[in-house]
TrEMBL record:
Polar residues bias spans: 201-210
Places the protein is found: Nucleus; Chromosome, Telomere
CDD domains (UniProt xref): TERT (cd01648)
Role summary: Telomerase is a ribonucleoprotein enzyme essential for the replication of chromosome termini in most eukaryotes. It elongates telomeres. It is a reverse transcriptase that adds simple sequence repeats to chromosome ends by copying a template sequence within the RNA component of the enzyme.
Start and end residues of each stretch annotated as Disordered: 191-242, 410-439
Keywords: Chromosome, DNA-binding, Magnesium, Metal-binding, Nucleotidyltransferase, Nucleus, RNA-directed DNA polymerase, Telomere, Transferase
Domain Reverse transcriptase: 596-929
Species whose genome carries this gene: Arabidopsis thaliana (Mouse-ear cress)
Protein name, as recorded: Telomerase reverse transcriptase
Principal subcellular localization: nucleus
Classification via SMART domains: Telomerase_RBD
GO cellular component entries: chromosome, telomeric region; nucleus
Amino acid sequence: MPRKPRHRVPEILWRLFGNRAKNLNDAIVDLIPNRNIQPEQCRCRGQGCLGCSSDKPAFLLRSDDPIHYRKLLHRCFVVLHEQTPPLLDFSPTSWWSQREIVERIIEMMQSGCDCQNVICARYDKYDQSSPILELLTSSSWEFLLKRVGHDVMVYLLQQTSIFLPLLGKKHQQVSGPPLCIKHKRTLSVHENKRKRDDNVQPPTKRQWLSSAVDDCPKDDSATITPIVGEDVDQHREKKTTKRSRIYLKRRRKQRKVNFKKVDCNAPCITPSTNGKVSTGNDEMNLHIGINGSLTDFVKQAKQVKRNKNFKFGLSETYSVIPPNHILKTLRPNCYDSKLLMNHIFGEVNVWSTTPSHGKGNCPSGSICLYHSLLKSLKSLIGKTKSSHLKMLLDKHCPVLLLQEDALKSGTTSQSSRRQKADKLPHGSSSSQTGKPKCPSVEERKLYCTNDQVVSFIWAICRYIVPESLLGTTHQMRVLRKNIAWFVSRRRNEKCTVNQFLHKVKPSDFPFFARKELCCMVNGHELQSESIRSTQQMLCTKWISWLFLEIVKKLVHFNFYATESQGGRLNIYYYRKRSWERLISKEISKALDGYVLVDDAEAESSRKKLSKFRFLPKANGVRMVLDFSSSSRSQSLRDTHAVLKDIQLKEPDVLGSSVFDHDDFYRNLCPYLIHLRSQSGELPPLYFVVADVFKAFDSVDQGKLLHVIQSFLKDEYILNRCRLVCCGKRSNWVNKILVSSDKNSNFSRFTSTVPYNALQSIVVDKGENHRVRKKDLMVWIGNMLKNNMLQLDKSFYVQIAGIPQGHRLSSLLCCFYYGHLERTLIYPFLEEASKDVSSKECSREEELIIPTSYKLLRFIDDYLFVSTSRDQASSFYHRLKHGFKDYNCFMNETKFCINFEDKEEHRCSSNRMFVGDNGVPFVRWTGLLINSRTFEVQVDYTRYLSGHISSTFSVAWQNKPVRNLRQKLCYFLVPKCHPILFDSNINSGEIVRLNIYQIFLLAAMKFHCYVYEVSRFWKLHPQTLFKFITISVRYMFRLINRRVRRINTGSSFRPVLKLYKEEVIWLGLDAYIQVLKKKNSRYRMLLIYLKSALSKHSLSQQLSSELRYATDRSNSSSLWKLNY
């Protein structure tokens, strides 16, 4: 029996209204009162209606109802407010049409002095129209009116709040009071969960958990808690509110006060002590107290955030330890050693109690942990003052010179060596004096490898930390592996203390051994449980301090950590001296288009300085500006909304621009359908691929301002709306601007609304916002000409190009090159097509197919395809000459054509990609286009430069094992584009090959993710098999949803010829082929997968399409990836 579909209420509505939010079908059924009357006694006179029907849901929704009516009942949601009166009367008939009902309700509400209903927004009395009116008078609402009658429809529009689906996970409110949240509301855990029964209370533990609950995996062996009595535990269970937190200044002051409160004369506990605790409380169990400063320190150390790049300000210093580090501020004496002990382990109340041994005079033969630690920490403080630490940095992470610097240093060293050779004594060898100290490498290899960074950190730890605090030899290997794991973390990953304590055993540390803690109090030994818990606590605090105060700060202080342009999420560590040399060499190239500004002019614009950073790439660095601080300015939002409005209403202004793969699909598919309709098959096609050289930096600012001024209107009217968003832990409200158009509904221009995966509701209250052309030109001019940077003590202003990283950069670039195409390129192509037609007509007398071409551009990447070789060749040569009036020239190294050009010696067709199957492809914006059939695949050769693990991050603090199920589904989403599955473009073999390749990449990521997680958790093969089968079945739903929901207009319809069983078979086979290479790790999982594949119905007789998809030669680039 098929499972009944679930129609869940959106999370945002559930949080705000609870059970009062229902879909339209359930809301109507609940509104109609149950009346036990016969159909003959009803107002319908025996014809049957919703009031007298015994099965109201079956009467409201029938099997033969249209699809649009079904979607309205299930995807439209209704909220019944608390003080709403019940439906008193029900009539199955309707005297008016749906449009007349909505118009009269709006006019009736507007006649009142205070109209706060959303249904009245933007209603024009003269035209009797509004965007919401058009939404509520569609054919599905007319169909609903015939089914429910006049009274129910009027009640829904007047007394309830209605939310219609808009785009993705967004909804639009079309009736009721406007939805609003006054302040950002943070939800607790039990509020975030859905309650199916109001009488059921959440568990006791969930009542005191706040929204900031740490989702880290709970492990008793890794927690940092002192040994406390039962009364303290009971007090914690009674806590029902979030811990109050004092202000930052008061917290710092409190830390200083607590830091000074140190017991300098803490005595040693020995068997000869009388057992009395210094607090005077004889009944209290023996425990170690911790002051507030250490507790705060431990709580802050729960998560170690790895930012995408560390702050780089000062050059390298003589020391490798920060000057404000606690080890640099202390001296190797007894007093400072006690301060450091308090800083690491907390303020110890009862290390020992005998006053006679408080000065360190321990009896002979006794083992005192307190004084042993003091001695070791004194050695730790003393060795941090050594100058040998800088030599360790130069030894393990040498400063790498550029090739040019290496040549200069080589020549100077040779000359100096010749000069010194005369001064050396007879018989002395000078072979070592001329050797350069720093090796030379290429620019892209200036960074230190992770192994070099780990070896440096471990060398520092071995030098300054006593061996007894590093543990046994086995424990040293464990610590080094944990340091290597920390250094190899990727961008946006957060580590927890539990990861640092992986495989760390207190018994392997001599200081925390059992014999060190066997002190006597009152003549009785400590219990074994207390000893073990004390060992664990001391070891946890020491390892936490070692990683947070030494390992982490060594990395922060000695390296500049950043991502690379081709390194994806990997982090690269540069010595600060190497980074400075690289930047000093590339700064002249990065500042191309900037001029130096006087100090007087710079002082007036100091507040408008742009933040920037340098991003390493293969042949240098790229300067990326950060305009996040100005993203909330009203002028920027107005300008962006107007430009997006022009993009949607006047696409011809942008020329041949496409903005994503879906936009490329909308432009390409009609062209291919037109070509096939002429002769039944595709004619020979000729491609030209080009890239604009420095597309953003070469833009003429004066020309750009003239282009924008030419198509801007005098005034724009924008709709000001609210966007009520729903996050995992909070709800908030954003103010958005949406373009207005009376002739279209609201959903046409929703691309101006920021699209994300959050559930949200758009509320339109009818407010307008006017933007003038004069203001737009001033704002755009300021963005272009007032972009000021500060390097050291000099200020620079950009005079050419568009600042990269700005929210408007891509749109302005498209408008600029769109004007170039409309004025120069399109006229040239028309003339070239006429010349080609005249030549062909002179050669042949019979009727020929007219020349057809298509030009597309993704920001700065051109793709030209034509049925005429002469036209493609002429366009190729025109691009090579460039366009001097627009300062636009092409990159000579990135041209690609699929035909041989007679005028050049080196053929650009060599830059095409040819797989092991011999099929030639043209590369363009991450896609592989078959130059013979125009079939489209994904370009996976971009992954060849690195490891697959660099393409994703692991949320270590958010239960990564449980998130594996969602991760496997997310791995399928980025490459799932409708252009890959439409039969109008690709054949059945290529459609299935695209699906198979997506599964191959997801299986490689699956292995890398499991390998990362298996370091800390053991994963059961049956659980992994369950997650894989869920993701494989999800793939078919994802393809269907992507193909059906894409907006293609009326030009064509997507064609999907695919079965669910084929997708499941391809997914299982892809996982088996990938995991075969890791047979020893996935032996049991492979047995489950092969068993499921053998039981599949398609395994008995495979089609030719599935055989072609699983052929290894067709996916040769994927099998070369490192995973």
